[in-house]
């Protein structure tokens, strides 16, 4: 029985490594960023955005991207309709939009807008 539990645990860790571990609360993510020193990766989405679903199921499903994001950033999804984020700072009319910010909420890169593919996301996100 213990062996079965370990196998299940191992598989859950392996499978979880393929997904980005998104937080759903901007303020909580900011606190984690300030505590760890890792930058915030903010994915701004809208409820009825097909491109938002696409970027989550394709570009962020890339194992190389997911591993890098989980290791080097504090990823958070923000939905425009819920408004639990600094609206004036993360203002956009294009969805999805990615923002990369330091723990003091300063932008580290120009926002990446639209339903990007894995390669474009890797080039924008990961340093060479």
From the N-terminal CA to the C-terminal CA, the straight-line distance is: 45 Å
Order of strands across the widest beta sheet?
2-1-3-4
Percent helix range = 40-55%
Unreliable residue runs: 2-17
Count of individual beta strands: 4
| CATH architecture label name | 3-Layer(aba) Sandwich
Oligomerization state of this entry? Answer: single chain
From the alpha carbons, calculate the radius of gyration and give it in angstroms.
15 Å
Tally of alpha and pi helices: 5
| CATH superfamily annotation | Glutaredoxin
Helix and strand content put the structural class at: alpha+beta
Average of per-residue pLDDT values: 83
Largest sheet: 4 strands, mixed
DSSP strand content:
5-15%
User: What name is given to the CATH topology?
Assistant: Glutaredoxin
Give the domain tally.
1
User: What general form does the structure show?
Assistant: globular
Encode the helix/strand succession as letters: HHEHHEEEH
Compact overview of the structure:
With 128 residues, the protein is an alpha+beta fold.
Task: Provide keyphrases for this structure.
128 residues, alpha+beta, Glutaredoxin, four-stranded mixed beta sheet, 15% strand, disordered N terminus
């Amino acid at each position: 029985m213990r062996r079965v539990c370990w196998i299940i645990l191992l598989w859950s860790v392996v499978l979880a490594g393929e997904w980005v571990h998104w937080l759903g609360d901007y303020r909580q993510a900011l606190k984690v960023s300030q505590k760890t020193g890792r930058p915030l990766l903010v994915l701004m989405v809208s409820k009825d955005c097909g491109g938002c679903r696409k970027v989550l199921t394709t570009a962020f499903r890339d194992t190389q991207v997911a591993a890098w994001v989980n290791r080097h950033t504090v990823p958070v999804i923000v939905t425009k309709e819920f408004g639990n984020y600094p609206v004036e700072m993360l203002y956009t009319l294009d969805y999805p939009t990615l923002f990369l910010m330091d723990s003091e909420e300063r932008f580290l890169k120009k926002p990446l807008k639209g339903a990007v593919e894995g390669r474009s996301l890797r080039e924008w996100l990961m340093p060479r």
